[in-house]
Amino acid sequence: MTAPATSRTPSPVRRRLIDPLRKAWHELTSMRTALALLFLLALAAIPGALLPQRELNEGKTMRYIADRGALGEWMDRLQLFDVFSSAWFTAIYVLLFVSLIGCITPRCWEFVQQLRAQPVKAPRNLKRLPRHITETVDGTPEELADRVAGNLRGWRRTTRVVAPSKAFPDGAVELSAEKGYLREVGNLVFHLALIALLVTVAVGKLFGYEGTRTLVAGDDQVLCNTSTAVYDSFRSGAMVDGTGLSPFCVRIDEFEATFLPNGQPDMYTSKVVYTTDVTAPESDWAAGIIKVNNPLRIAGDRIYVLGNGFAPTFTVTFPNGEKRTQTAPFLPQDTTTMLSEGAVRFDTPAGMYPDEDERRKHQIAVDGLFAPDPTYHGTLLLSQSMVVKDPAVAIRVYVGDAGLDTGRAQSIDSLDRSLIDQKRLNRQASVNLDVGQSTRLPDGTVVSFDGFKRWASVQVSHDPAQTWVLVSAVVMMAGLVVSMLVRRRRIRVRLVPAKTDGNASSDGQRRTVVEVAGLARTDQAGWGDGFDEQARGLLVDGGRVKPGKL
User: Fold this and answer.
1) From the first residue on, what is the mean pLDDT of each consecutive set of 10 residues in the chain (550 residues)?
2) How many CB atoms lie within 10 A of CB 259?
3) pTM for this one?
4) DSSP letter string over 464-498?
């Protein structure tokens, strides 16, 4: 008994499962879909350019959300402030990557097959091709074929001998030649480099990190890249756990701002000292300069200055004569005038109040405005420009529990309003002060405004794939230029013995009917003027086609 033959027809269940998946895959890996995803990715990046992003300035982002209430909260839920790490942007990114891989792989294989194959033979009717001439010249088909082949050096070509047939009773010789394969090479290189660009960007995100820290210039504040805890904010890729950071230390000694005659900023310059040996004494550190678009590069990391501002210095003299001095960064509220807002807190000297609760009730908190170029609207302090001219502050001084013992992080630009609302922090004075002026509180405490320093927001950026991103981008542009400049063309030549008595001229020379036809692979590659002249030149000894012709 023989086994029943198995059917090769797919089952209905398999067709319902496999066919839609196959169709979806073909649709995803089509060039049309890849272009659509690339355009969609560009559109998705627009919110990242127009809206504040957490990874660049978290404080500004939170203020933007708070100013817009419910709208800001919904925008945050849609991840519009974390565009480049959002789920929807990542989905587009991954789909584009898969689409390009699925689209370019068969094209590469097809191109390899084309290079291995001979140029296709001439069609039977050459007159149907866009460019065509017919000439009768002296010589045998074999002699003319050798001459034409010699004039087509640099072309991929092949010569075929056609046996006698009804169409060609005396036989014929056909020559097929092609050029412009570099166009497809450029096209493939462009797409492969685009894939490499996507991969390297993703690798940079996975293994890179960014940290920001506000440093007061000339205040001996040092940033040592040894732990994530030293940063005000730190964002890292999924493969970074915070250990193994590139070791270095940097300190800003001086921050200089220059302005144009109209008061607009011209250049910001940070003079720094740094070292890659965190155990080295500061006297051995090297000097460096950070400018706009000119970061300091240390140990594979880049250090940028993102923002800057003023840090007023206050001194509090307590009733027992002890002094506390702090320089606190104030955040600009108006970047055109640098009118800045901030807060500073002072703890009570140890031993001044033996009782802990009593000590906590006598902490000092100061908040208010700093104006580099002050002007007054009544008693309201404003700033005319960002150029420093007799700076002043408008401050409110509070006494009570400033929140220093809560263990929670304190805002650098405002006091905890809940402490004020609960009467745990009480206002004792509101005053405008110039440099060197002070105010005395009812209990004898003196608060003085001593001057200011400049602060700068420093960003440390580590991207191990940045060099390859640049290489991929350069190669991608080179491939695009090549694919646009190189023209893909084909030329077909058929040589048939002339139908004359004996196939010879009056002087006994044999003659041949020559058909030359040209085909451009794309409309943009058209032949232009002069095809007939160049085609006739193929039949002349030494009539090699000139570069850029045919």
Assistant:
1) 53 71 83 87 89 79 87 90 88 88 87 82 81 85 87 86 84 87 88 90 89 90 90 85 88 88 81 92 92 89 90 93 92 89 91 81 92 91 90 94 78 84 91 94 93 92 91 94 84 84 58 84 57 80 52
2) 14
3) 0.69
4) TTHHHHHHHHHHHHHHHHHHHH---EEEEEEEEE-
The Cα–Cα gap between 441 and 366 comes to 12
Q: How far apart are CA 77 and CA 91, in angstroms?
A: 17
Q: Is 22 exposed, middle or buried (0-12, 13-18, 19+ CB in 10 A)?
A: exposed
CB atoms within 10 A of CB 306: 12
∠ Cα 8 13 19 (to 5°):
80
The whole-angstrom separation of Cα 31 and Cα 104 is 9
| Distance (Å, whole) CA 523 – CA 517 | 16
Contact 207, 240 (CB under 8 A): yes
At how many degrees (to 10) do helices 87-116 and 31-50 cross?
150
Query: Mind giving me the DSSP string for 176-187?
Result: EEEE-HHHHHHH
Rounded to whole angstroms, the Cα distance separating 466 from 205 reads: 10
The token pair that represents 160 in the structure block: 């075929």
How many C-beta atoms surround the C-beta of residue 283 within 10 A? 6
Token pair of 303, please? Answer: 């250090």
Predicted confidence at residue 43, as pLDDT, reads: 92
State the pLDDT at residue 550. Answer: 44
Sequence-distant (6+) residues with CB within 8 A of 514 are 134, 135, 136, 137, 144, 493, 494, 495, 539
Contact call for residues 332 and 359 (beta carbons, < 8 A): no
324 contact partners, CB below 8 Å, separation of at least 6: 315, 316, 318, 346, 347, 349
Residue 171 has, within 13 A of its CA and on its CB side, a CA count of 8
